[in-house]
TrEMBL record:
GO terms for molecular function: UDP-glucose 4-epimerase activity. Residues 4-324 form the NAD(P)-binding domain. Pathway: Carbohydrate metabolism; galactose metabolism. Its EC number is 5.1.3.2. Its cofactor is NAD(+). Keywords: Carbohydrate metabolism, Isomerase, NAD. One of its GO terms (cellular component) is cytosol. CDD domains: UDP_G4E_1_SDR_e. Homodimer. Signal peptide: none annotated. Belongs to the NAD(P)-dependent epimerase/dehydratase family. This is UDP-glucose 4-epimerase. GO terms for biological process: galactose metabolic process.
Length: 336
């Protein structure tokens, strides 16, 4: 089965391509490399012995989309491509709506012209905003989002809902990721943020390897057991497998399918710092700082729907997430 993977050179897309190849699927990548490097292709080859067909281009370029659909017989699309930095989205909302919302509409329009009916979309737990209670299940209200990035994900979800309603033959799956972290266990592939990392795990990893002096812990006065924010961290390998499980279970089943992909377990910032110290064998310097605007206290998934309907469950714990991140970061201190 051939699957177009937009954003397949990025963090989650690259790990998903590896797992797809291992599962006998054939990924075809479309990526404009705005947040990734071509070296990723060699790493995929090192791990799997295969190099996916790669088109360097933009999801907003109708010509390249039509070219791919005519040259490759694509069965399904996994759509990772997009911009993802919350802070940057506040500064550059136009770019975020253009890339994430307009880009997705261009992609779906080209899919429809080519008669490709199966789409898996990278959504985010951010669509739940600040939920009234945890754990969060798929029926928890969405839309109470606080920044343009989150709003772009919410808007795409709503557009896809309408598109699927009008084209009932389509299978559209919204995967709401919790907090993806970790790296390929080989240490060959991992997250390679450009500039100062926005997210906790890559920041801790850069402190551990000496690229940054200390971690700023954003808030220790939340109503959580140790006062720091609690999130549902999910290993990127589990997340990658979740996409394959979704393709297998519902990729050919018409309808709008929505799943949380998390572990169902929350960990605090300080628990993540401890797990990382254990993995790298030394302390991680940190300073307690004020809360980061827009952050919520706690967030973790009710994963029972994915377990039941996708026959998928996260396997890796925080210890493995830290160990694998450290293996990647220490072998590739400057990334790819
Ligand atoms: P990433 O930036 O590593 O990967 C995205 C890839 O898409 C990059 O390789 C980039 O070059 C490419 N890209 C961006 N805009 C493009 C365009 N217009 N045309 C073609 N290629 C384009 O990000 P990631 O962490 O792998 O995230 C993948 C998806 O998952 C994104 O849609 C993101 O919003 C979503 N998501 C990520 C997280 C997270 O914490 N990493 C959480 C929830 C959801
Ligand atoms: N966080 C932190 N310092 C950082 C980055 C993040 O203390 O440099 C905290 C943040 O406040 C939140 C948790 O780590 O409680 C996860 O943040 P991240 O940005 O990774 O994910 P998200 O906010 O999207 O859940």
């Amino acid at each position: 089965m051939k699957v177009l993977v937009t954003g397949g050179m990025g963090y989650i897309g690259s790990h998903t391509c590896v797992q797809m190849i291992e599962a006998g699927l054939e990924p075809v990548i479309l990526d404009n490399l705005c947040n990734s490097k071509e070296a990723v292709l060699e790493r995929i080859n090192q791990l799997t012995g295969k190099t996916p067909v790669f088109y360097q281009g933009d999801i907003r370029d109708r010509e390249i989309l039509d070219q791919i659909f005519s040259e490759q017989s694509i069965d399904s699309v996994i759509h990772f491509a997009g911009l993802k930095a919350v802070g940057e989205s506040v500064e550059k909302p136009l770019e975020y709506y253009d890339n994430n919302v307009h880009g997705t509409l261009m992609l779906v329009d080209a899919m429809k012209s080519a008669g490709v009916n199966s789409l898996v979309f990278s959504s985010s737990a951010t669509v739940y905003g600040d939920p009234a209670e945890v754990p969060i299940n798929e029926n928890t209200p969405t839309g109470n989002v606080t920044n343009p990035y989150g709003r772009s994900k919410y808007m795409v979800e709503e557009c896809l809902r309408d598109i699927q309603y009008a084209a009932p033959e389509m299978s559209i799956t919204l995967l709401r990721y919790f907090n993806p972290v970790g790296a390929h266990p080989s240490g060959t592939m991992g997250e390679d943020p450009q500039g100062i990392p926005n997210n906790l795990m890559p920041f801790i990893a850069q402190v551990a390897v000496g690229r940054r002096e200390f971690l700023s812990v954003f808030g220790n006065d939340y109503p959580t057991p140790d006062g720091t924010g609690v999130r549902d961290y999910i290993h990127v390998m589990d997340l990658a497998d979740g996409h394959i499980a979704a393709l297998n279970a519902v990729g050919k089943k018409d309808g709008l399918h929505i799943f949380n992909l998390g572990t169902g377990k929350g960990s605090s910032v300080l628990e993540m710092v401890d797990a990382f110290s254990d993995a790298c064998g030394h302390d991680i310097a940190y300073k307690l700082c004020p809360r980061r605007p827009g952050d919520i206290a706690e967030c973790w998934a009710d994963t029972s729907k994915a377990t039941k309907e996708l026959n998928w469950e996260a396997k890796f714990d925080v210890k493995a997430m830290a160990a694998d991140t450290w293996r990647w970061q220490s072998a590739n201190p400057k990334g790819y």
